[in-house]
Amino acid sequence: ENNATTPTSPDRLAAILSYNEMLRRFPERRWRFVAVDVPYKEVLEQEKHILRLISPLDSTMDFNIATAFWFAGRGKGRILGMDEVEDVERGLQSKAVVGNDTMP
Questions:
Q1: Comparing C-alpha atoms, which of 67, 66, 84 is closest to residue 8?
Q2: Which of 25, 27, 36, 38 meets the CB 3.0–4.6 Å disulfide criterion with 77?
Q3: How far apart are the C-alpha atoms of 13 and 10, rounded to whole Å?
Q4: Whole-prediction pTM value?
């Protein structure tokens, strides 16, 4: 299914990296990563309503942030397990290594 936020989307990857940073910096706190996966069709269905709520609405970024808050505010999501988070981080590290090997 086509999700607006997939496990490999830039926003999801940035969120996972931030989550890992919080785990490292504040190990005494219990953190949970709640993934809100939204089918793109649902984003389109809610787009006009979300656009009416946004202020300011000066950029695509404003819409993207508002959309994330809108869907997160519903309180529906799934808690990512550490294995899934670690898989994403390993994948990013692999890409970085491959990328570095190809640099002159």
A1: 84
A2: 36
A3: 5
A4: 0.67
